[in-house]
């Protein structure tokens, strides 16, 4: 391991905590929920599209930034274009180490802390995010730039909290931490490995973390790429909240390259879902097919665009490019 990475991990061990709280299955329920898309591929009249994901999650007055997009300044510019003030957001979640979800972190933190030193100062990640990734030949570390990013973030005075399991970060708002993989989903691109016991094993992105909101209408899930598999994430969300009703799935669920057999199985496991607000790596054709399989329509299963949003009790405001007129 390179000396700089070893030093970084020692620094992280000293400055960050690991937290996991057992889910009770009976807790508080959120009343007001809104999720606004700040990074995805499709842009509307306002904003810039990119291969990445970020969303502003607002729950009963608590504001959380979920992922930070790919390019350093896209989320910042999109928020400005949409007249969204992110300086009051103090919690930021990074779902996994891929740079299309981490790219805006430092730019956002430095820009926003000029107005509020506490902006994006509390950073949640899933356990496993710091692990070196290797190509199959095992020669050198590759792909994982998160430890260096984390050091730069800590240098701004922020703090990082690693989650080894579910944690309630606000009333009725949970982070899954690493998700149990009961279903054999492979919702990631193959090619990278981690070392376990001196041996290379497939990197399954065990740190992949989703946000789960417990509401009276059922469970709302926000994912970055859903690398843990949306069927697994849905099972975990149900176990965390004790509610078997799925109300909304929001974000990327990495189904764009999957065959129809996988989409059919996925829809079967998501039966009863009221809203699919699909972004990023879900895929346009996959979204349309899931809409059909789930018995949804063009108002309730939508491809997300910059500025589009989901509001509990109101549904999806799709915007012009993905909206339904008629």
> What is Rg?
19 Å
Low-confidence stretches: 1-15
Total number of beta strands: 18
Q: What strand order characterises the main sheet?
A: 1-7-6-5-4-3-2-17-18
Judging from the principal axes of the Cα atoms, what is the shape?
globular
* Oligomerization: single chain
Derived from helix and strand composition plus strand pairing, the structural class reads alpha/beta
Through-space gap between termini: 59 Å
Order of helices and strands: HEEEEHEHHEHEEEEEEEHEHEHEEE
Main beta sheet strand tally, sense and closure = 9 strands, mixed
Tally of separate helices:
8
Task: Give the helix proportion (percent range).
Answer: 10-25%
SS strand fraction: 15-25%
* Average pLDDT taken over every residue: 92
Structural features:
326 residues; 9-stranded mixed sheet; single chain
Q: How does this model look, in words?
A:
The protein is an alpha/beta fold. About 25% of the residues lie in helices and about 25% in strands. It is built from eight helices and 18 strands. The chain has helices at about 5-15, 75-80, 100, 105-110, 145-155, 230-240, 260-270, 285-295; strands at about 15-20, 35-40, 55-60, 60-65, 90-95, 120-125, 160-165, 165-170, 175, 195, 200, 210-215, 220-225, 245-250, 275-280, 300-305, 310, 315. A nine-stranded mixed sheet has the order 1-7-6-5-4-3-2-17-18. Strand 14, helix 7 and strand 15 (about 275-280) form a beta-alpha-beta unit. Helix 1 (about 5-15) packs across helix 5 and helix 7 packs across helix 8 (about 285-295). The protein is globular, with a radius of gyration of 19 Å. Mean pLDDT is about 90; it is low at about 1-15.
């Amino acid at each position: 391991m390179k000396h700089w990475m070893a030093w970084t991990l020692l620094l992280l061990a000293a400055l960050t905590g690991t937290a996991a709280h057992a889910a009770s299955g009976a807790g508080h329920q959120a009343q007001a929920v809104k999720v606004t898309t700040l990074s995805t591929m499709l842009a509307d009249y306002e904003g810039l599209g990119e291969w990445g994901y970020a969303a502003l999650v607002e729950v009963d007055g608590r504001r959380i930034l979920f992922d930070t997009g790919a390019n350093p300044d896209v989320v910042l510019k999109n928020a400005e274009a949409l007249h969204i003030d992110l300086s009051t957001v103090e919690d930021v979640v990074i779902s996994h180490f891929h740079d299309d979800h981490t790219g805006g972190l430092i730019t956002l933190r430095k820009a926003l802390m000029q107005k509020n030193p506490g902006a994006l100062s509390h950073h949640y990640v899933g356990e496993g995010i710091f692990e070196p990734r290797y190509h199959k030949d095992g020669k050198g570390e590759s792909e994982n730039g998160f430890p260096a990013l984390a050091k730069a973030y800590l240098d701004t005075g922020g703090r990082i909290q690693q989650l080894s399991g579910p944690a309630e970060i606000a009333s009725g708002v949970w982070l899954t931490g690493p998700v149990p993989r009961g279903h054999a989903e492979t919702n990631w691109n193959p090619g990278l490995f981690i070392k376990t016991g001196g041996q290379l094993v497939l990197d399954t992105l065990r740190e992949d973390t989703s946000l789960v909101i417990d509401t009276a209408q059922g469970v709302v899930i926000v994912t970055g790429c859903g690398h843990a598999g949306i069927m697994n994430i849905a099972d975990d969300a149900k176990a965390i909240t004790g509610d078997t009703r799925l109300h909304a799935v929001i974000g990327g669920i990495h189904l764009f390259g999957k065959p129809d057999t996988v989409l059919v199985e996925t829809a079967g496991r998501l039966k009863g879902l009221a809203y699919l607000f699909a972004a990023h790596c879900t895929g346009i054709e996959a979204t349309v097919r899931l809409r059909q399989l789930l018995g949804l329509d063009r108002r309730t299963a939508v491809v997300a665009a910059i500025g589009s949003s989901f509001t509990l009790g109101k549904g999806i405001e799709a915007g012009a490019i993905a909206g339904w007129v008629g």
